[in-house]
Amino acid sequence: MIIAPSVLTADLAALAEDCREALDAGLDWLHLDVMDGNFVPNLTFGPPVIRSLRSALGSEPVFDAHLMIENAEQCYQDYIDAGCNHISIHVEAVKHLHRAVTAIREGGASVGVVLNPGTPVEAALEVLSEIDLVLVMSVNPGFGGQSFIPQVEAKIRQLSQAIDAQVANGGRPVQIQVDGGVKAHNIAMLREWGVTNCVVGSGLFNDKANVAENLDIIHKALSA
Length: 224
Hints:
Layout: E1 2-5, H1 15-24, E2 29-35, H2 47-57, E3 62-68, H3 72-82, E4 86-90, H4 97-107, E5 110-115, H5 122-125, E6 133-137, H6 152-168, E7 175-179, H7 187-193, E8 197-200, H8 211-223
Parallel strand pairs: 1-8, 2-3, 3-4, 4-5, 5-6, 6-7, 7-8
């Protein structure tokens, strides 16, 4: 199970320091929630902040960018050039999904597609052989701190079966990532459903304990 800390829940006034704390705790993915105030109501950060973060942290961490933006087809390269290793785009926000997926890979990043809670899984299956990851939103995108939507189970299980079948036929392995309401109490359940990558926000960055202590709680939940 890959644990990808959501940097949006870190202390943004000390972003590099909080991200370094996560890396020192043994994590090597950082999940970057990019919001434009149009596709989703919130507004976060863009390439300049990501470029500065890459400069501060070096080449080691995987920058996992979740583009909650309307113009991903036009500006994905800006995020790759800023230091993102992986780009995930919303199927609901692009006009030409196959073209966008191909362009991102050719631009130098691995690529994923994102499904909102109300988006059918078939939207991802259309490009499953061409992507590296499917991000299943277990909350509606735009704000942190929302409750996990349990109805995503059927979507995740269907994706897992399709990926297993694809791999069995010699095709590409694809990660299933879940974002929204992931905590120690439900992460083992998600793995049982077929999830291989979890975005964790307040479960890691909070004022109750440091990242290493919170990560230990998550690892114990996974091994219980």
